[in-house]
């Protein structure tokens, strides 16, 4: 939770902020920014709400007062409080690096809007800390880096259950990365040093799936020239991932249920029971409970598999991650093709965010690979993506209103999209030169750096 500090001579404004903020530090009675810093040196403050007069003091430039604060609290944000006739000071403060301003008399709706944005910024900072947590191994860091609240919830569940022996059922549409998540669970479990074995149940003929799973003895059927241990045997001590579990036949459902209950298997052609120590992760894009109601899938097996269900959201539910997915896929293609493509042109990103992605992440990966092969510029352009997607980029900025979210969030989404487009084109025009970009935009280099960090852009991308 954010730790705030209110510093204003206006009693009513102070009370308004107190009513709006749950976690609040005591008011500080000071007369200058220098006194403010001295009074808060030993406190951790995330955001200062400061009256402009305290920042200005007897100086002409408000930036000096801000610098006093950042000298001792470099990571703190500042919201400037001004009278409605003194907005120029707020503009000067924002140009110097303050995050926002509020005008007296304070309105509850305006305070709430600013607080919600500050909370989102804090969540983003916590996300960075979460990525630095010792729990995630190095290979997983790029995967678990997400801007989607839905995916953060998924990864939170992975953290909670990865180290257990619990059976997991992954659900969601085709192409969302169920096998990738299964490997993530295994790689963070106590079984990480043992095998991870995968079987696509829908790709194996019914007559062979029992042998594939449990193994067989020599001569058990025509073509069985030697003993095999099957997928369960190969996964001993580790994890067995059963993809598209909803496609197995009723007879195989009974046998799999027996394995889950007794932890033993019987190989085809043998009457000997073999104990197995295997963790099961199953996945399906079908509605298994619906299949149970129709009588095509056993309810007792469903309950055995559905011990720890995880639903993975589709790409259209997590469009916040499109840019980071694209960046990862572009980097992979650069390595494979020997190219040096930086990223997506802003118009391409705008089109991607309008598209419904029926093929999910897999479709995005394929489109990026094709575009990288065709692209001769540093940014993937509209002419190198499929027509049905490029046609959606009739404008650079998406002006369609998303009424599925609150007004404040919808407004912020549009602001974020505009910031990304503006910043990308600005850095491209200035060839990644921060000072030049800041001067052209009329803001400080500190603000440029904060925006670049927010939108995961680096100056090297534009050189």
How is the secondary structure organized here?
Blueprint: E1 4-7, H1 11-20, H2 33-40, E2 47-51, H3 52-56, H4 63-72, E3 77-83, H5 87-95, E4 100-104, H6 108-131, H7 141-144, H8 149-161, E5 168-171, H9 178-187, E6 196-200, H10 206-214, H11 230-234, E7 239-243, H12 250-262, E8 264-266, E9 273-275, E10 279-284, H13 288-294, H14 299-305, E11 308-311, H15 322-337, E12 343-344, H16 346-354, H17 360-374, E13 379-380, H18 387-390, H19 407-429, H20 434-441, H21 445-454
Parallel strand pairs: 1-2, 2-3, 3-4, 5-10, 5-11, 6-7, 7-10, 12-13
Antiparallel strand pairs: 8-9
Please give a structural write-up.
The chain is of the alpha/beta class and 463 residues long. The protein folds into three domains: 4-130, 3-Layer(aba) Sandwich (Rossmann fold), CATH 3.40.50; 138-313, P-loop containing nucleotide triphosphate hydrolases (Rossmann fold, 3-Layer(aba) Sandwich); 317-462, Helicase, Ruva Protein, domain 3. It is 47% helix and 12% strand. It has helices spanning 11-20, 33-40, 52-56, 63-72, 87-95, 108-131, 141-144, 149-161, 178-187, 206-214, 230-234, 250-262, 288-294, 299-305, 322-337, 346-354, 360-374, 387-390, 407-429, 434-441, 445-454, and strands at residues 4-7, 47-51, 77-83, 100-104, 168-171, 196-200, 239-243, 264-266, 273-275, 279-284, 308-311, 343-344, 379-380. The strands form four sheets. The protein has a five-stranded parallel β-sheet. A four-stranded parallel β-sheet has the order 1-2-3-4, sandwiched between helices. A two-stranded antiparallel ribbon has the order 8-9. The longest helix has 24 residues, at 108-131.
């Amino acid at each position: 939770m954010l730790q705030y500090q209110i510093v204003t001579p206006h009693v009513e404004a102070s009370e308004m902020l107190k009513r709006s903020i749950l976690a609040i530090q005591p008011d500080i009675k000071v007369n200058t920014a220098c006194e403010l810093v001295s009074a808060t040196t030993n406190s951790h403050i995330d955001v200062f709400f400061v009256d402009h007069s305290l920042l200005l003091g007897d100086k002409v430039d408000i930036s000096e007062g801000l610098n006093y604060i950042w000298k001792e609290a470099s990571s703190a944000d500042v919201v400037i409080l001004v009278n409605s006739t003194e907005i120029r000071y707020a503009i000067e403060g924002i140009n110097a690096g303050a995050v926002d301003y509020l005008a007296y008399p304070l309105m509850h709706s305006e305070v709430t809007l600013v607080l919600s944005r500050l909370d989102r910024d804090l969540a983003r900072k916590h996300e960075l800390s979460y990525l630095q947590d010792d729990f995630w191994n190095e290979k997983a860091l790029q995967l678990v880096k997400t801007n989607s609240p839905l995916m953060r919830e998924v990864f939170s569940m992975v953290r909670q259950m990865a180290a257990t022996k619990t059976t997991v059922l992954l659900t969601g549409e085709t192409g969302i990365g169920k096998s990738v998540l299964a490997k993530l669970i295994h790689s963070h479990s106590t079984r990480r040093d043992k095998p991870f074995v995968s079987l696509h149940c829908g790709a194996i003929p019914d007559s062979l799936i029992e042998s594939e799973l449990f193994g067989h003895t020599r001569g058990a059927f025509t073509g069985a020239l030697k003993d095999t241990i099957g997928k369960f045997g190969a996964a001993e001590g580790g994890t067995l991932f059963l993809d598209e579990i909803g496609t197995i036949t009723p007879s195989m459902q009974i046998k799999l249920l027996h394995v889950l209950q007794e932890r033993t298997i019987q190989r085809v052609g043998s009457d000997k029971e073999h104990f197995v120590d295997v963790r099961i992760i199953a996945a399906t894009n079908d509605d298994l409970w619906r299949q149970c109601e129709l009588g095509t899938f056993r309810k007792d097996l469903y309950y055995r598999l559905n011990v720890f269900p995880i639903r993975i959201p589709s790409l259209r539910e997590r469009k916040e991650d499109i840019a980071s997915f694209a960046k990862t896929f572009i980097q992979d293609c650069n390595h494979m093709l020997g190219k040096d493509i930086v990223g997506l042109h802003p118009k391409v990103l705008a089109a991607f965010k309008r598209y419904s992605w029926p093929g999910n992440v897999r479709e995005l990966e394929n489109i990026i690979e094709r575009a990288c092969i065709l692209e001769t510029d540093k940014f993937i352009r509209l002419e190198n993506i499929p027509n049905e997607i490029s046609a959606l980029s009739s404008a650079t900025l998406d002006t369609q209103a998303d009424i599925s979210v609150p007004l404040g969030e919808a407004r912020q989404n549009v602001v974020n999209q505009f910031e990304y487009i503006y910043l990308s084109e600005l850095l491209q025009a200035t060839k990644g030169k921060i000072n030049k970009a800041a001067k052209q935009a009329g803001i400080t280099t500190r603000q440029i750096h904060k925006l670049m960090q927010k939108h995961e852009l680096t100056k090297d991308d534009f050189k």
